[in-house]
Amino acid sequence: MNYKDNKALAFYGLPQEVKFCTKCVISNQRPSSDVEFRSKKETKKNVINFDEKNVCSACQYSIEKEKIDWKIREEKLIDLCKKIKKDNNGKNYDCIIPGSGGKDSAFTAHILKYKYGLNPLTVTWAPHLYTDIGWKNFQNWSNIGGLNNILFTPNGKLHRLLTKLSFQNLLHPFQPFIIGQRLIGPVIADKFNINYIFYGENQAEYGNNIEENYKETMEKKFYSDHSENIFFGGVSKKEIIKTYKFKNEDFLPYEPLNNVKQNDKIQVHYLGYYLRWDPQECYYYAAENTGFKTNTERTEGSYSKYSSIDDKIDPFHYYTTLIKFGIGRATYDSSQEIRNNKISREEGVNLVKLFDHEFPKKYFKDFLNYIDLSEELFFETIDKFRSPHLWTKDSNNNWKLRHNVSKTGTDDIN
């Protein structure tokens, strides 16, 4: 492969030409969904949209949010909560709220219970490896926030294998976690005969199809699509069962909610549709009302101390997005804070320059032990997934981005 070729191959169906949003610091290489399972040979160009002025769809929607009458939206939420309470008549939990007890789910659950009068049941798909602060915040969610919770921990032997396969075959160690996280709410709702689920923000805020932001509810296909040949980490379930001696029932927690009694009744709502969503304000609220604590040090790869801090594997999820798409954790964090008027674009550019490429060394050994992988094989795998149109090597044989938001990439300079 000729890494010096400006027309080098683009993996994952990414655009050949790299562009950066003129409002925030995200690039047009960002997949339009955070649930990203692509192989290198993917050809579908399903990425964030840029307009003719190179403004990304997430920034376009942040401008549209200024025009929304949030008082009317809140009134719709109040009416919905009244309907839920009336239909339930105190005989069951009013709704399911999936989450970890992080700032967003802590805010969602607490405000729905104590301001809008619902009786929620919170449910948690356990992280791969709890951090100390993640476990404390999870406990505080119930102990200080006053919320009931079900913690679901999947078969560790299978979950570790799926994480390893996802890392080696897709460079996506979070795939099995994301699958479980997206399904646990509807599955528990079905088991408890509960018709309503609330998530925090709609992920479309961060760059999916902008029209998705105007939907109050999640499409059912998000959690009920079914395939006879389900793949995990690029390997079919049938092959995993045959090769690793698991049973079909071991995969139940990862199975889509399909043809169940409650499926037609379940409604999944986004609280961010009704209330203006701001992650930093969620943090302030959660800290005051549920005992949520930030980390004592900033998160590796970023400048933040309060986002996605409950799982030791989390830093490697963001590190792999840097490798695959040229977008690291500082890019994600600073982009949303620019849109929410917390920092300027100039500050965002500098934060990306400082932190985006930082290697997450704190939990590196924990991660390698978890997926039973050597350090040598880790880096061999990482390098296989660098898209040639994004990465090249300098004269010292070090990997460098061809283009970056600071305009100091190898191809920006040449």
Structural description of this entry:
The longest helix is centred in the first third of the chain and has 19 residues, at 70-88. With 414 residues, this protein is mainly alpha-helical. The mean pLDDT is 90. The chain has a 3-stranded parallel beta sheet. Strands 4-7 form a two-stranded parallel ribbon. The protein has a two-stranded antiparallel sheet with strand order 5-6. The protein is built from 16 helices and 9 strands. It folds into 2 domains: 11-66 and 294-413, no CATH class; 70-274, Rossmann fold, CATH 3.40.50. α4 (132-143) links the parallel β2 and β3.
Shape: globular
Report the C-alpha radius of gyration, rounded: 21 Å
H and E order: HHEHEHEHHEHEEHEHHHHHHHEEH
Largest sheet: 3 strands, parallel
CATH level 3 topology of the largest domain: Rossmann fold
Helix-strand category: mainly alpha
Instruction: Assess the beta-strand content as a share of residues.
Output: 5-15%
Number of helices: 16
- Mean pLDDT, as a whole number? 90
How many β-strand stretches?
A: 9
Number of individual domains: 2
Poorly predicted sequence stretches spanning 5 or more consecutive residues? none
Widest sheet: strand ordering: 1-2-3
What helical percentage do the residues reach?
Answer: 40-55%
CATH architectural group of the largest domain: 3-Layer(aba) Sandwich
Report the top-level CATH class of the largest domain: Alpha Beta
Distance between the termini: 20 Å
